[in-house]
Amino acid sequence: MLPYFNGERTPVFDPDARGVIAGLTLRHTRGHLYRAICEGIAFGTRQILELLDGAGGGPATRVVAVGGGTQGGLWPQIVTDVTGRPQEIPEQTVGAAYGDALLAAIATGLVAPDTDWAKVATTTAVDPSTEPLYDVLYHAYLVCTPPPARTCTYSPTSSDRTSPPGDRVPVSDRWGPRS
């Protein structure tokens, strides 16, 4: 599944990208579709992590999951297995607002700059038995996805908030013909 049902941001930066559900048969249930959604998003996460790894900073040494998806256990396990990286799930999983509060507290001097509010509640470990299957599925995912955008420039005057920052360039002009 390509989970681009409202365009795609990182790493594709294409507001016109569309989702795909491939291989669906009458034997598939809602559970299969839910898992496919989780796996599709996990493949996108793996793609982003691999691009960051290759950007010169080396591999991420810590992956922390936040948000509502961390509560059920299945989605964090899928992301962990697909990426091959353990994930820490903090006690507070509210995400951005919690981080914003920490940054504000550091900026105003209420807490020390090295303060870490992300106390780990659990760590999701990689299940090595899933690696061969997820590697095959990930490569199939990459074949079906548009290539990552080469650059993304910020344009503070852009009034189109549905597109990525910078000038909109048609996909065919941005990447050339798909092979």
The gist of it:
The protein has 179 residues and is mainly α. It has 5 helices and 2 strands.
Low-confidence stretches at least 5 residues in length (pLDDT < 50)? 152-179
In total, how many beta strands? 2
* SS field, number of helical segments: 5
Give helix and strand order, one letter per element, not per position: HHEHEHH
What oligomeric state best describes the polypeptide chains here? single chain
**Ends: how far apart?**
20 Å
Average of the residue pLDDT scores? 82
- Give the overall shape, derived from the CA principal axes: globular
* Biggest sheet statistics: 2 strands, antiparallel
Tell me the helix content.
Answer: 25-40%
CATH architecture of the domain at 30-152: 2-Layer Sandwich
Features:
mainly alpha; Nucleotidyltransferase, domain 5; two-stranded antiparallel sheet; 2 strands; globular; disordered C terminus
Structure description:
Strands 1-2 form a two-stranded antiparallel sheet. It has a domain at 30-152: ATPase, nucleotide binding domain (Nucleotidyltransferase, domain 5). The protein has helices at residues 30-57, 74-83, 96-107, 131-144, 171-175; strands at residues 87-90, 120-124. Helix 1 packs across helix 2 (74-83). It is built from 5 helices and 2 strands; from the N terminus they run ααβαβαα. Helix content is 39%, strand content 5%.
